[in-house]
Amino acid sequence: MRIRFMVLAAGLFLLLPGAIAQDAVMAPCDRACLENYLDRYLDAMQANDPSLDLFTRDCKFTENGVRLPLGGEGLWYGMSARGNYKFYVPDVETRQIAYIGTVREGGGMPAKKAAGSQPAAKPSEGTLAAVAIRLKIDDNGKISEAEQLVVRPETTLSFAAPQENAPPPSPSTAERVEKMEAPHPIFAEVIPEAERMSREELVEVGNYYFEGLQRNDAKGYYPFTDDCVRFENGMLATRECKKQFSDGSLRNIVSRIRDRRFVAVDRERGIAFAFGFFDHYSINWTWQLAELFKIEKGNIRRIEAVFHRCPFGMNSGWSTYEQGMSEEIQSIR
Hints:
Elements lengths: L1 H23 L6 H17 L7 E9 L2 E2 L7 H4 E13 L4 E10 L21 E11 L5 E9 L21 H7 L19 H16 L9 E9 L2 E4 L2 H6 L9 E11 L4 E10 L4 E12 L2 E12 L10 H5 L3 E2 L3
Parallel strand pairs: 1-6, 7-12, 9-13
Antiparallel strand pairs: 1-2, 3-4, 4-5, 5-6, 7-8, 9-10, 10-11, 11-12
């Protein structure tokens, strides 16, 4: 009897860690839950506090395609405040969230105070930068992946060919995005459940934009609503998305669109969010971008993107060389 009791007790003891581990597995994370993770991430970055309370020990982090230690480098080193623009794209099915917003970098007290009888210099607010971020939350409720695109004033660009030693455009991308104040109300409109497209369908429609832009010959499939508009770096690019494609006026805008990673899909609101690269062979430069699509009944209604210039052929830090050079849709993470 005593032996049986000891065996039973040992069995219960062995089962206990499994029960604890099972309890530790994270419950489903809804829209508000994912948005809270993004807010906590920005707070942690501003405080330069990559605590294990929020991050896994081996959390992978990249900024502008370069893998860096989490904390103390890149925007983690200099972020001083959040801006006002906040656009969340939660993906509850994959427990990921994408985001476009603004932050301030390099704020604080000035290097020197005013001398003599002059009033003391005011603290600097820092320089505005636009950010595009993706986070992945693991089963234990920790951030296991974090990637961000930081569009600083010195890397802001336009569609015009780059001019050597030209000053950055004014206002900068971040300043223009900040002036938008909030995402357009169209993005908050909920798609009726019976009309919601699958993840794969939303990605496919978003990719038609990339295909149409790269192959622009007025012969492709261009699923745009008649009132579709496109904003790029906080500026209105066109109110005639369909016309630009169907008449071939965007010919030779880009040589190759590669590493098309659709990293967040919001089926409830019909939004697909992608990272990618636009290569230009003739001028040997690349745009690294984050782009999102509002899709209704199989048609793109609104497009918004932020991007900057990066070294030609840049990799995202999340793809193999072959994936990074491919024009195919990359697997949803």
